[in-house]
Amino acid sequence: MTTTIAPTAPQQATHRVSAGSLLKAEWISIASLRSNKLSWIIGTALVVLPAAAFAAIYGAQFTDSGQDPAMLEWLPGVGEIAMNGYFFAIAMAVIIGSSVYAKEHSTGSLRTLLSAAPKRFGVMAAKAAVVIAATFIATVVAFVVALAAAWIVGELFGLPTNVDDLLFGVVLPILGAGVFAASTAAFTLGIAALLRSETWAVTASLVFVFILPMILATLPWSWGADVADVLLGTTGQNLLLAHGALSGDLLLDLVLTLAWGAAAFFGGAAVVARRDA
Amino acid sequence: MITTEHLTKRFGSHTAVDDVSFVVKPGQVTGFLGPNGAGKSTTMRMIMGLDRPSTGSAFVNGRPFAEHVDPMSQAGALLDAKAAHPGRRAVDHLRMLAATNGIGTRRVDEVMDLTGISSVASRRIGGFSLGMHQRLGIAATMLGDPQVLIFDEPVNGLDPEGVHWVRGFARARAAEGRTVFISSHLMSEMAQTADHIIVLGKGRVLADAPLSDFLRGAEHPTVRVRVSDAAVLGSVLAASGVAITQTGSDALEVTGVPAHIVARAASLEGLELHELTPVNASLEEAYLALTDDATEYRSDSAALVS
Fold first, then answer.
1. To the nearest whole angstrom, how far is the Cα of B228 from the nearest Cα of chain A?
2. Distance, CA of B38 to CA of B15 (rounded, Å)
3. Chain B residues within 8 A of A3 when measuring between CB atoms
4. How much is the pTM?
5. d(CA A116, CA B96)
6. Distance from CA of residue A141 to its chain's centroid?
7. Once rounded to an integer, what is the mean pLDDT over residues B82-96?
8. What is the pLDDT of residues A197-219, one digit of tens each?
9. What is the pLDDT of residues A179-198, one digit of tens each?
10. For site-directed labelling of A99, which of A167, A181, A238, B210 has its Cα 20 to 30 A away?
11. How far apart are the first and last CA of chain B?
12. Residue A108: helix, strand or coil by DSSP?
């Protein structure tokens, strides 16, 4: 049977899909789940606790030495101590990035969402924007609290802050941690969209970020170390370090860190746009 | 209005939907019938842009659904009642969906009232019964107050009160002038709900007609007769070429002629009629006759014999 489609007259849409509406919906989606809030709370605690614990350990050693000034030569500053829990911040980003797509897919919630907002790239872009912003802010807040904890605990033991340059020794590493975590979340979102499995997305992302660079770096060929140097895990960790000044290497690490997140996201979004929901 | 044109969906070598064309008109409930695996859900997913057709097109109000700038005002679809995150509260699920189209929270409250789930708005969806899931799904379809409603097996697993509610809801929305498209494999349900029937079998449209025409088209008028001399009446009617089955010493089933012809034949022979009962085909029988060769998964009829 062949039918002729009579185009309907364009109607004045009162409720329409826009970038703002999708961002708001995605924020409700993420913020309305206890599991996401719990991930952020636990992630923050696991970032703060190592900072406080290491400050206490170094402070106790410094006190036991009779506050020997020679120790200050090798004792890390509070900025470095605060970054000790970075692994947990990245793990939190991986879990959130994965759940934003894979959990919504496995529960069928994503299909319901696409029935309401069928343009898939817009939905994926909103997911990425919200997860990137939320992860960046949550990570920066976690490390600021970790810095405060390390500072306060160190003070209790009379440990000097040992910070030469506030911008390059504290502020940029914390912002770098935020960028590393946010890019990792976008990376995992893209991997989750490709694999459609929360378990596999988390496993693949953690292996890629933490295990693969180590394995490549230990290979007996120079190319292994060269490749490891440009992987997300390595470039991201370089952003956490205190730098004396802005350098080409630091900027390259920043670009590569962002590029890994973008590449995985666009790859995942392209597949989602073509595949049956 | 929903229109499909030569809609086809292949999964590898299997053709789930095969060159399906139909129009679902506003102001009536259109039942979408077919056995399991007939391609009903796949067709509905393609209409909503969730599955991509291998060939052909589907239109909602004249455009592919994904091309509307206000999709929730065009169509609402309940394709899987359980397709919601179990950890999310019902009100948050609806708020999230409403927000995608810039719909405010007042409308969320309205649709919860409409579907009777306001009292469970703050409960997490994971704890919902199937009936509450269905109501939540239907509430979501109404957020944009759309002209087109698509429900895939909305009464599956519901108790009688739930079935009655869904039926009344669908009829009321059609009475408002909306396009209501409901899939089901429950023939009895469609007989009470639908105005128009589209039957799918093995991915192809087997029938597309008003319910009454569908019944009439599949009907083979049968008359049950008890008469003083069945043999005489049988021989008279057999001469006119109708099918006759003797079901007792004084009973016949005559297929192919209406009851008044049988009565006149008995009268002309001076026979005494004890019973003359027209037997109409039910929707179930009409459907089974239609889909007999198009059933993907067939049960063993021997299992029905104890």
1. 52
2. 10
3. 3, 5, 21-23
4. 0.83
5. 10
6. 13
7. 97
8. 999 999 999 999 999 999 999 99
9. 999 999 999 999 999 999 99
10. A238
11. 48
12. coil
Measured between CB atoms, which of B6, B71, B88 is closest to A116? B71
Residue B274, φ and ψ in degrees, nearest 5: -105, -25
Structure tokens that stand for B40 in this block: 């009903």
How far apart are the C-alpha atoms of B209 and B195, rounded to whole Å?
9
> Which stretches does DSSP call E strand in B25-168?
28-33, 55-60, 75-78, 148-152
| Contact check, Cβ <8 Å, A109/B92 | no
Q: Name the residue facing B72 among A2, A15, A22 (closest C-beta).
A: A15
With DSSP H G I counted as helix, E B as strand and the rest as coil, what are the percentages for chain B, rounded to 5?
40, 30, 35
Residue of chain A whose alpha carbon sits nearest to that of B71 = A116
Query: How does pLDDT run across A231-266, given as a tens digit for each residue?
Result: 999 999 999 998 878 889 999 999 999 999 999 999
Which domains, from first to last, does chain B contain? 2-212 (3.40.50.300), 220-279 (3.30.70)
Sheet containing B204-210: give its strands across: B75-78, B148-152, B179-184, B28-33, B196-201, B204-210
Query: Residue A21 is which amino acid?
Result: S
The token duo for A272 is 């989602």
Strand stretches in B12-154, DSSP E? 14-24, 28-33, 55-60, 75-78, 148-152
User: Would you mind telling me the total number of residues written for chain B in this entry?
Assistant: 306
- Of A5-19, A69-83, A117-131, B260-274, which one has max mean pLDDT? A117-131
Residue B252's Cβ-count burial label (10 Å; 0-12, 13-18, 19+) is buried
